[in-house]
Design a protein that fits this description.
The protein is mainly α. The protein has one domain: MetI-like (MetI-like fold), CATH 1.10.3720. It is built from 12 helices and no strands. The N and C termini lie far apart (about 45 Å). GO terms for molecular function: transmembrane transporter activity. Belongs to the binding-protein-dependent transport system permease family. HisMQ subfamily.
Amino acid sequence: MIEILQQYGHALLWSDGYRFTGLAITLWLLVSSVVMGGILAVFLAVARVSPLPWLRFPVWLFTYIFRGTPLYVQLLVFYSGMYSLDFIRGTEFLNTFFRSGLNCTVLALTLNTCAYTTEIFAGFIRGVPSGEIEAARAYGFTWFKLYRCIILPSALRSAIPAYSNEVILMLHSTALAFTATVPDVLKIARDINAATYQPFYAFGIAAVIYLMISFVLIGLFKQAEKRWLRHVKPQ
């Protein structure tokens, strides 16, 4: 294992003439998809619980499709399927975008985590105590102020434990990036295995890297729970 790290560690963990390492690519996929998907999910969750059917139904359809199909299939559709369409190849921006495996991977991961996160946030929005909402309305809060000051802060705080699981699952999902030839941790581990014929060490190192990232993420979410969910901890 030491020899593998000495020979290929620059590609996995540290830079040595490489623009990005496998670890950097994995973290970029995770952070970019979680941030963009999470921000979009906040707005979609509000629409998901809307009493207006024309606003609620498209969001339900979006979450149904992306939660009902495998992420692997979604990645293949974006990376291989979209580029086969004539109007994609005929549009300069879309042609350039879908030719990049990294762009397709980020898009698939973002939309997938957005669908799951939307349902998580929507569930906690529905769980906001009605007494808080009635009190805010009694004070004359507008719909926008009600969501900004009461509903969303309460729902997003309560959603931290469930959302942490989604982030960890999304970290694991980044391992599918090798499908689009993105040089993430698993793709480089596969290349190391092909060069050394030592799958235990090659994939074992990749597993340790994912465990280390998971350990850091779990610690960060534990700190977030201690800070924002202190009021619901048992005495």
